């Protein structure tokens, strides 16, 4: 399928020189008597690099063979993370290196969106919020309030976040997967 830069929207997927990109920003620019151009910022779905590119408004751009599938994260073996397709029950493996920091917020059995380019996994999109157990932190002290300071805490997935002083080991907290920030305590051990 082919589209023109006039059809660009934020998040639209395009293929440039055989690589899939997502439109981050776009701006239609009319130059005096010449034709209109579209200035864009595009993020590579393979490397994560952002490039700037200007297109003529009548240029034809290919849409990538890109698909998102709902899958369930099953387990990891230290090197690879395994996901199961919710419809066909097929399993795929994605390396820890390709996933990056999101593994810190990925508990087993989590439903995720796996992004495929030419039937090969290129990324995983987590839900915006996940609930994770605190497995290691300094003990909370009676009288600590929500407005006080923060302390480091280790999550059941192996990642670390900053939490308020009143959070204790065993508490379950809601974490924003986009920036790794503490949102609220969901369940307490007491």
From TrEMBL:
Q: Which InterPro entries match?
A: Elong-fact-P_C (IPR015365), NA-bd_OB-fold (IPR012340), Rib_uL2_dom2 (IPR014722), Transl_elong_fac_P/YeiP (IPR020599), Transl_elong_KOW-like (IPR013185), Transl_elong_P/YeiP_cen (IPR001059), Transl_elong_P/YeiP_CS (IPR013852), Transl_elongation_fac_P (IPR011768)
Q: Which PROSITE patterns match?
A: EFP
Enumerate the GO terms in the molecular function aspect. translation elongation factor activity
Where does it sit, as one GO cellular component term? cytosol
Residue span, Elongation factor P C-terminal domain:
130-185
Which pathway does it serve?
Protein biosynthesis; polypeptide chain elongation
Could you tell me which residue ranges the Translation elongation factor P/YeiP central domain spans? 68-122
Q: Which domain of life is it from?
A: Bacteria
Where found, per UniProt?
Cytoplasm
Q: Recite the UniProt keywords alphabetically.
A: Cytoplasm, Elongation factor, Protein biosynthesis
Among HAMAP family, the record links this protein to: EF_P
Q: What job does this protein perform?
A: Involved in peptide bond synthesis. Stimulates efficient translation and peptide-bond synthesis on native or reconstituted 70S ribosomes in vitro. Probably functions indirectly by altering the affinity of the ribosome for aminoacyl-tRNA, thus increasing their reactivity as acceptors for peptidyl transferase.
Family as reported in the entry's similarity comment: Belongs to the elongation factor P family.
Q: What is this protein called?
A: Elongation factor P
Organism of this sequence: Flexistipes sinusarabici
Question: What is the phylogenetic placement of the source species in the record?
Answer: Bacteria, Pseudomonadati, Deferribacterota, Deferribacteres, Deferribacterales
Q: Which gene encodes it?
A: efp
């Amino acid at each position: 399928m082919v589209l023109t830069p006039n059809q660009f929207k934020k998040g639209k997927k395009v293929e440039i020189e055989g690589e899939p990109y997502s439109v981050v920003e776009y701006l239609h620019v009319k130059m005096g008597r010449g034709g209109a151009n579209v200035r864009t910022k595009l993020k590579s779905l393979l490397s994560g690099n952002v490039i700037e590119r200007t297109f003529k408004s009548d240029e034809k751009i290919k849409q990538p063979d890109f698909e998102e599938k709902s899958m369930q994260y099953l387990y990891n073996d230290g090197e690879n993370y395994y996901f199961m397709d919710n419809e066909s029950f097929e399993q795929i493996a994605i390396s820890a290196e390709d996933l990056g920091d999101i593994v810190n917020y990925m508990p087993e059995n989590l439903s995720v969106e796996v992004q495929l380019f030419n039937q090969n996994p290129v990324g995983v999109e987590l839900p915006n919020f996940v609930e994770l157990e605190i497995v290691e932190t300094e003990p909370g002290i009676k009288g600590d309030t929500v407005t006080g300071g923060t302390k480091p805490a280790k999550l059941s997935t192996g990642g670390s976040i900053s939490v308020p002083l009143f959070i204790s080991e065993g508490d379950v907290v809601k974490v924003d997967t986009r920036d790794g920030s503490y949102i609220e305590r969901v369940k307490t051990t007491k």
